[in-house]
Amino acid sequence: MTPPSPAWPFLPAPEPAPRLFVSHFDHQRFHAEAWQQAGFECPAPLASAVAKRHAEYLAGRCCAREGLRALGHADTPLAPQPDRQPQWPVQACGAITHSHGLAAAVVAPRRDWAGVGTDAEQWLDGARAERIAPAVLTPREHQALAAIAPEHRARCVTLAFSLKESLFKALYPLTGTRFYFRDAELDPQALLRLREPRGRCRLALLRPLSGAWPAGTHIEGHFAELAGRAMTFIGVSQGV
User: Fold this and answer.
1) Which Gene3D superfamilies does the entry mention (predicted)?
2) Annotated binding-site members for CoA
3) Going along the chain, which residue ranges are E strands?
4) 5-111: CATH class
5) 119-237 adopts what CATH topology?
6) Feature table: binding site
7) What are the pLDDT digits (tens) for 152-207?
8) Per-residue pLDDT tens over the stretch 7-57
């Protein structure tokens, strides 16, 4: 596992900028001593898991710890809660992601950010994108996708998938409500912008998640590419 390093592939950077740290790992080289060497304890539910799960979990926690250190927080175990969400310090919020040997974590001060989400995905090929699109895209998104040149569609589906993953990570801790891909929608112009190397887009909730998050609420998302993978970020400012 490489030491976590700071990164921010999204433009423009929101202010104040959350901290994103990234690490690369090879699960085939994972060994049990890695937990102690990294200064973490292996959670009991993970004890019987395969090496890949150990490696990605540990790399993600190491990235999160570096993000918290960058904000001035003491080290914390970031233990999983019953819903498998990390236990963040009261003064911070964050999210962890991993994808095919890459782990990343975004961390932000809670005085400025109510919630943050990030997601990394390997780019889908055309056949797989076509298979999963009906589960990821709403009918309106699917109609907009049909107007996009075939060579760009897999990229757009990958980023739509990733943006909705980031949205869940940002909003679930705030609402306690689980929701699914087709419960949020990119407007047609936003879907077209996903062809660009990086940028911003808006998503709308299609169902209420709580009194503070009714259907029709709009949230801004960021997308980019990092280390050959699709990368997305969604942040909810305090007071939104």
Assistant:
1) 4'-phosphopantetheinyl transferase domain
2) 53, 61, 97-98, 119, 165, 169
3) 5-6, 19-24, 92-99, 102-109, 113-121, 184-186, 199-205, 218-226, 229-237
4) alpha beta
5) Ribosomal Protein L22; Chain A (3.90.470)
6) 53, 61, 97-98, 119-121, 165, 169
7) 999 999 999 999 999 999 999 999 999 999 999 999 889 999 999 999 999 999 99
8) 999 988 888 889 999 999 999 999 989 999 999 999 888 889 999 999 999
